[in-house]
């Protein structure tokens, strides 16, 4: 019997469209059509996400990942099949061991409590426990079948609900966003947010994809990224986010690069060793040294780039 918690903060922010919050880190999105349901991203693996989904819908479930980072793909083993762009297949192991995830989970818990140094368990804002709610990869069922997700691929959930996958490389080589035309929603994973790290491909290539997303803005009313750090749960990113990213990338491509202090992904000071690890994980994409990266800032937008890959 699955003992992990199913009590995620979650909100239905449009009809049959849910944001499920993995306790203030990754956001998963559940879209329900007349015949099938679709889960975008599967989180780091705190609690019983599959069980939580089953409390909302019993329709056949498609699981598609925006990219292969631990906070979006770490829980893949809870599902028999996932869709992932082949370009991200080897970024991180699938399944991923609990050891790779547990430190980050601790920091997630601490970040939201504003209490670095205090044990997360003193506060109990959320009903998860590191001992029972984070399983080793080998304990969570068979290895999932990984299907190759392609640019332009459409998922028909029934009742006219069609979700299109769009490749948007930069944060990772195979980063994908999903457009749900019926509800006019763009699910951006980590491709668009206020603290964006890119560098998996040339900056100009990413810039081209960002402009493509902007040109599609007649097809969506808002952008929901794969975390709610930069917005309230259920609410979209600010409308300034994507245009500011484009401005910053254009400036950088024109050679205007003024580095600033990089904010921590975890939102506040953390021990140096942890910062190094976070940089390695989120900044050190394959084939590049984390030390080459610089962070740029404009207002509330931060953009971390590799100046040697413009
Ligand atoms: Zn990511």
Key structural traits:
310 residues, alpha/beta, Metallo-beta-lactamase, Chain A, 5-stranded mixed sheet, 7 helices, binds zinc ion
Give a summary of the structure in a few sentences.
This protein is an alpha/beta fold and 310 residues long. The protein has helices spanning 49-56, 70-73, 98-113, 130-133, 203-215, 241-253, 272-282, and strands spanning 10-14, 17-21, 27-32, 37-40, 61-64, 81-84, 145-148, 154-156, 162-167, 176-180, 185-189, 195-197, 222-225, 294-298, 301-305.
Question: In order across it, which strands form the biggest sheet?
Answer: 1-2-3-4-5
What Rg do the Cα atoms give?
18 Å
Which ligands occur here? zinc ion
Shape: globular
Give the % helix. 10-25%
Element-by-element helix/strand order: EEEEHEHEHHEEEEEEHEHHEE
Name of the top-level CATH class: Alpha Beta
Overall structural domain count: 1
The CATH architecture classification is: 4-Layer Sandwich
Could you say what the CATH topology is called?
Metallo-beta-lactamase, Chain A
% residues in beta strands: 15-25%
- What is the CATH superfamily classification? Ribonuclease Z/Hydroxyacylglutathione hydrolase-like
Ends apart, CA distance between termini: 51 Å
Q: What is the overall pLDDT average?
A: 86
Describe the structure.
This protein is α/β, with parallel strands linked by helices. It has one domain (10-238): 4-Layer Sandwich (Metallo-beta-lactamase, Chain A), CATH 3.60.15. 22% of the residues lie in helices and 22% in strands. The chain has 7 helices and 15 strands. The chain has helices at 49-56, 70-73, 98-113, 130-133, 203-215, 241-253, 272-282, and strands spanning 10-14, 17-21, 27-32, 37-40, 61-64, 81-84, 145-148, 154-156, 162-167, 176-180, 185-189, 195-197, 222-225, 294-298, 301-305. The strands form 4 sheets. It has a 5-stranded mixed sheet with strand order 1-2-3-4-5, with no helix packed on it. A 5-stranded mixed sheet has the order 8-9-10-11-13, with no helix packed on it. Strands 12-15-14 form a 3-stranded mixed sheet, with helices on one face. The longest helix is centred in the middle third of the chain and has 16 residues, at 98-113. The radius of gyration is 18 Å and the shape is globular. 46% of the residues are buried. Mean pLDDT is 86; it is low at 268-278 and 280-289. Bound molecules: zinc ion. Zinc ion binds at residues 67, 69, 171, 190.
């Amino acid at each position: 019997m699955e003992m992990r918690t199913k009590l995620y903060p979650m909100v239905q922010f449009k009809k049959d469209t849910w944001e499920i919050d993995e306790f203030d880190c990754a956001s998963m999105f559940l879209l329900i059509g007349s015949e099938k349901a679709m889960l975008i991203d599967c989180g780091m693996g705190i609690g019983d996400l599959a069980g939580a989904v089953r409390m909302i819908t019993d329709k056949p479930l498609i699981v598609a990942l925006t990219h292969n980072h631990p906070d979006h793909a770490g829980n893949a083993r809870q599902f028999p099949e996932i869709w992932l762009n082949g370009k991200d297949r080897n970024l991180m192991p699938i399944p991923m061991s609990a050891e790779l995830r547990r430190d980050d989970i601790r920091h997630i818990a601490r970040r939201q409590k504003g209490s670095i140094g205090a044990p997360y368990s003193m506060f109990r804002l959320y009903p998860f426990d590191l001992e029972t709610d984070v399983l080793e990869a080998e304990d969570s069922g068979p290895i999932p079948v990984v299907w190759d997700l392609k640019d332009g691929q459409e998922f028909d959930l029934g009742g006219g609900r069609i979700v299109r996958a769009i490749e948007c490389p930069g944060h990772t080589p195979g980063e994908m966003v999903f457009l749900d035309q019926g509800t006019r929603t763009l699910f951006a994973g980590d491709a668009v947010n206020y603290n964006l790290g890119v560098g998996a491909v040339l900056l100009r290539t990413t810039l081209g994809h960002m402009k493509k997303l902007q040109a599609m803005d007649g097809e969506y009313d808002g952008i929901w990224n794969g975390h709610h750090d930069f917005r309230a749960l259920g609410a979209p990113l600010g409308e300034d986010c994507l245009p500011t990213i484009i401005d910053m990338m254009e400036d950088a491509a024109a050679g205007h690069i003024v580095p600033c202090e990089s904010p921590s992904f975890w939102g506040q000071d953390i021990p140096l060793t942890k910062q190094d690890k976070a940089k390695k994980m989120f900044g050190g994409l394959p084939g590049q040294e984390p030390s080459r990266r610089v962070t740029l800032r404009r207002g509330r937008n931060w953009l971390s780039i590799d100046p040697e890959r413009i």
